[in-house]
């Protein structure tokens, strides 16, 4: 990935930080965007904290700054997102708006903001993060699964819109091995969960030249689950 610039959103989170580190290890320059503080990789990487990707203005300013400081933008990895579990009977309806904004609107907004730069690179790629839990939603997963199902459709639709120009794919993780999941499910068999590093490898494959023939794919990444 030498000479390439990858943008990682949610770069202050567990998966975002792992993807950013893996991209840097492969030689890419990384644009790191997060609502909070992105991971610090040092070097020539561009760290932009306090960026709300539900809002097009800040998203455009962030993408423009990364392009200006690194000279190009080859791939966008849309990792920003979030999770809430709640039943409809006992839950708060505001969670439906919240998860729509966190999971779908951030991906659509960041993609729109990055698009002119990805097109200019000549072989741009977008990689979204859906969720296997949105293929068949369980109890309490309604708002989350609906927002991630929206990510499936954004991926398919944008892949068609940009065919021959920018590739658009998504990974569908099951449970990622994160400290938060270990805390929430202390009795689970953690060894079956997909590691952030293994998921990062799949995302970087989809975002890189070796996947040049792949677009519109929704790729399950479930480890041993
Ligand atoms: N963990 C799992 O088991 C699992 C399974 C399937 C799919 N996923 C998906 O994988 C992705 C990463 O998960 P994760 O566990 O690494 O989550 P995480 O640690 O919570 O990281 C998500 C990051 O996104 C940032 N973010 C949220 N809203 C944003 C906004 N409006 N603008 C910019 N950045 C924003 C958060 O910033 P703040 O913390 O500052 O809000 C956070 O740093 C998410 O899309 C998630 O839905 C996770």
- How many individual helices? 6
What small molecules are bound in this structure?
NADP nicotinamide-adenine-dinucleotide phosphate
- SS-derived structural category: alpha/beta
**Distance between the first and last residues' Cα:** 30 Å
Kindly state the percentage of residues in helix.
40-55%
**Shape category:** globular
Task: Tell me the strand percentage band.
Answer: 15-25%
Describe the biggest sheet?
A: 7 strands, parallel
Number of strands: 7
Order of helices and strands: EHEEHEHEHEHHE
CATH architecture title = 3-Layer(aba) Sandwich
Fourth-tier CATH superfamily name: NAD(P)-binding Rossmann-like Domain
Enumerate the strands of the largest sheet in spatial order, edge to edge or round the barrel: 3-2-1-4-5-6-7
CATH class: Alpha Beta
**Rg from C-alpha positions?**
16 Å
Description of the structure:
41% of the residues lie in helices and 16% in strands. With 225 residues, the chain is of the alpha/beta class. Strands 3-2-1-4-5-6-7 form a seven-stranded parallel beta sheet, with helices on both faces. β1 (5-9), α1 (14-25) and β2 (29-33) form a beta-alpha-beta unit. It is globular and about 50 Å long. It starts with a strand and ends with a strand. NADP nicotinamide-adenine-dinucleotide phosphate is lined by residues 9-10, 12-16, 34-36, 51-54, 79-83, 102-103, 106, 129, 131, 173, 175-176, 178, 181.
């Amino acid at each position: 990935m030498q000479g390439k610039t990858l943008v990682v959103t949610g770069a202050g989170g567990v998966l975002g930080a792992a993807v950013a580190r893996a991209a840097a290890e492969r030689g890419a320059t990384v644009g790191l965007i997060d609502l909070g503080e992105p991971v610090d990789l040092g070097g020539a990487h561009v760290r932009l904290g306090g960026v709300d990707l539900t809002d097009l203005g800040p998203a455009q300013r962030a993408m423009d700054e990364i392009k200006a400081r690194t000279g190009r933008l080859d791939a966008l990895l849309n990792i920003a997102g979030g999770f809430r579990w709640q039943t409809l009977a006992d839950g708060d309806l505001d969670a439906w708006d919240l998860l729509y904004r966190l999971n779908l609107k951030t991906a659509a907004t960041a993609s729109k903001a990055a698009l002119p730069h990805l097109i200019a690179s000549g072989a741009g790629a977008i990689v979204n993060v859906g969720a296997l839990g949105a293929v068949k939603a369980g109890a309490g997963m309604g708002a989350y699964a609906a927002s991630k199902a929206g990510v499936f459709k954004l991926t398919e639709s944008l892949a068609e819109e940009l065919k021959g120009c920018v590739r658009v794919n998504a990974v569908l993780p099951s449970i990622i091995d994160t400290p938060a999941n270990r805390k929430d499910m202390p009795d689970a068999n953690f060894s079956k969960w997909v590691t952030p590093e293994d998921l990062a490898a799949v995302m970087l494959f989809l975002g890189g030249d070796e996947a040049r023939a792949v677009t519109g794919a929704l790729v399950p990444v479930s480890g041993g689950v």
